[in-house]
């Protein structure tokens, strides 16, 4: 029987990564044989305790680090190809940008570097700064911003080129309840536009609110991947499932 | 080219708005103002002193700019992870290095241009007060000397990129750059000395000669860009010297940036 093959938007195949810890030769496994497909229009929540390997996996997708083994692609193209980043927006964990640039200049850079025309950049900048509520602060240097404002500027930067795939590393961290709602609304809007969202979090309620599918990663190993609704049908809360998986993995939680 | 420009622009803006640049500028203006006072006090060879002092100020200020603003621009990208905002765009590692370097070169050009205006004013004012001390004075030579200073600073800046591409902290980059600068300023004299030690009556082992010769080819020979003395004394510089010095600067700079790009291509940013 032949099935129609749909190329996943994000494909991670058998990725492993080790880091050297300090000067000694002791190596720490950050990721172990991670395989994952994320399809078009999906909101995928990557859940795991601190130090589980969520950011490592994301940085491999942006080609900030390279895997020891395995292969990752976005929209069918190897992540080593810089053109994948034309269709992909990324928000780093605890983002930090140039101190002396303004939000407007930051978005100008993001747009220009992604090949947008000046007119489109102007339009998108206006739209996005309204969305993340930074319109009033657009001409202020980023060093005068609060942590939450920097985070929101980072979200605008990740979306300036209207990417098809949006990768967000802990998008809610450092945000107050208003900021969290704002980011939540943006994520729902992106989903309605058919964008693919891959985001990491250790906050269970965020995952429960936005995700179609969930992957739980503990100590570098993917423990479970399933649709949120089918997970919730077998247990009462996501928290219960999460704690069970952490415990089954041998309690590899770093506090 | 289209992706290099935005990187160069944000690098330039980040550099020019840095507070350190105000400090460096104030220092330079004070030195140039001091030029007038010192010329007043010396009352002999005033013309040579004024030119030498003005050019030395430009050169030293430029060095401070490369060491404290330039290295910091690159180091911050790595330490504070601002590099993520650049590399998460469709930008390759070599493009990042090249764009960043262009921004830094632009910063050096701008700063030196502003300083030069003030230096020229200070020389002009001294010349106005003591016209008798400027018999063999030449503006073209002063401008040539400033251009040479600019080339050597851009070369040194390329070297900071090379060091930053493999070192883990900005401190190592700073130390390596200072060492290269010191060696680069004196290597030609040292080489001349060890190759003809009998001239001063000392003995040099063959190993030392080999080491010095190797260093001569590895480290940049910055002394060829130092024509402050010729400018101060109004001594002519041949066209072929200018041609070879500029070619040397361009080739060395290009090599440093190419090697930095190759190393940077393999670097990880966890």
What does the model show?
- The complex is a heterodimer of chains A (255) and B (270).
- Chain A has 8 helices and 10 strands.
- The model of chain A has no long low-confidence stretch (mean pLDDT 88).
- The longest helix of chain A is centred in the last third of the chain and has 16 residues, at 177-192.
- Chain A is globular.
- Chain A folds into 2 domains: 1-87 and 164-255, 3-Layer(aba) Sandwich (Rossmann fold), CATH 3.40.50; 96-162, no CATH class.
- Chain A is α/β, with parallel strands linked by helices.
- Chain A starts with 9 loop residues before the first strand and ends in a 7-residue tail after the last helix.
- In chain A, 34% of the residues lie in helices and 25% in strands.
- Chain B has one domain.
- Chain B has helices at residues 4-16, 19-42, 46-79, 83-87, 93-129, 139-166, 170-195, 206-218, 228-233, 239-265.
- Chain B starts with a helix and ends in a 5-residue tail after the last helix.
- The interface between A and B is medium-sized, with 35 and 26 residues.
């Amino acid at each position: 029987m032949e099935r129609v093959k749909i190329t996943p938007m994000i494909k991670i195949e058998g990725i492993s990564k080790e880091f050297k810890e300090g000067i000694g030769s002791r190596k720490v496994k950050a990721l172990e044989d991670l395989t994952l497909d994320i399809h078009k229009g999906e909101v995928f929540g990557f859940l795991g305790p601190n130090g589980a390997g969520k950011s490592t996996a994301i940085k491999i997708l942006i080609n900030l680090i390279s895997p020891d083994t395995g292969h990752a692609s976005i929209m069918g193209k190897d992540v080593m190809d810089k053109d994948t980043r034309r269709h992909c927006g990324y928000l780093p964990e605890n983002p930090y940008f140039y101190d002396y640039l303004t939000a407007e200049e930051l978005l100008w850079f993001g747009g220009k570097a992604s090949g947008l025309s000046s007119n489109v950049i102007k339009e998108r900048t206006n739209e996005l700064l309204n969305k993340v509520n930074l319109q009033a602060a657009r001409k202020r240097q980023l060093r005068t911003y609060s942590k939450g404002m920097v985070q929101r500027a980072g979200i605008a930067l990740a979306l300036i080129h209207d990417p098809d795939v949006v990768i967000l590393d802990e998008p809610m961290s450092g945000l107050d309840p208003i900021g969290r709602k704002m980011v939540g609304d943006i994520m729902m809007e992106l989903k309605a536009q058919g964008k693919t969202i891959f985001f990491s979090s250790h906050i269970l309620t965020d995952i429960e609110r936005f995700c179609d599918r969930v992957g739980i990663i503990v100590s570098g190993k993917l423990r479970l991947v399933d649709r949120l609704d089918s997970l919730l049908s077998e247990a009462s809360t996501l928290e219960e499932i999460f704690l069970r998986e952490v415990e089954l993995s041998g309690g590899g939680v770093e506090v | 080219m289209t992706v290099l420009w935005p990187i160069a622009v944000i690098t330039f803006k980040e550099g020019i708005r840095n507070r350190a640049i105000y400090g460096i500028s104030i220092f330079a203006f004070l030195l140039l103002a001091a030029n007038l006072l010192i010329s007043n006090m010396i009352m002999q060879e005033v013309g040579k002193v004024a030119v030498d002092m003005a050019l030395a100020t430009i050169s030293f200020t430029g060095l401070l700019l490369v060491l404290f603003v330039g290295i910091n621009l690159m180091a911050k990208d790595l330490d504070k992870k601002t590099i993520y905002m650049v590399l998460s765009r469709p930008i390759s590692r070599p493009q990042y290095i090249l764009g960043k370097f262009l921004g830094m070169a632009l910063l050096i050009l701008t700063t030196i241009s502003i300083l030069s205006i003030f230096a020229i004013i200070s020389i002009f004012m001294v010349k106005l007060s003591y016209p008798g001390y400027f018999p063999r004075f030449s503006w073209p030579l002063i401008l040539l000397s400033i251009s040479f200073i600019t080339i050597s600073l851009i070369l040194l800046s390329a070297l900071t990129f090379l060091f930053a591409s493999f070192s883990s902290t900005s401190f190592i980059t700073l130390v390596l750059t200072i060492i290269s600068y010191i060696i680069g300023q004196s290597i030609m004299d040292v080489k001349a000395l060890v190759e003809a030690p009998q001239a001063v009556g000392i003995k040099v082992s063959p190993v030392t000669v080999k080491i010095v010769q190797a260093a001569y080819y590895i480290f940049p020979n910055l002394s060829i860009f130092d024509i402050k003395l010729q400018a101060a004394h109004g001594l002519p510089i041949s066209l072929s010297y200018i041609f070879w010095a500029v070619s040397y600067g361009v080739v060395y700079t290009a090599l440093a940036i190419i090697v930095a790009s190759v190393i940077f291509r393999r670097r990880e940013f966890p």
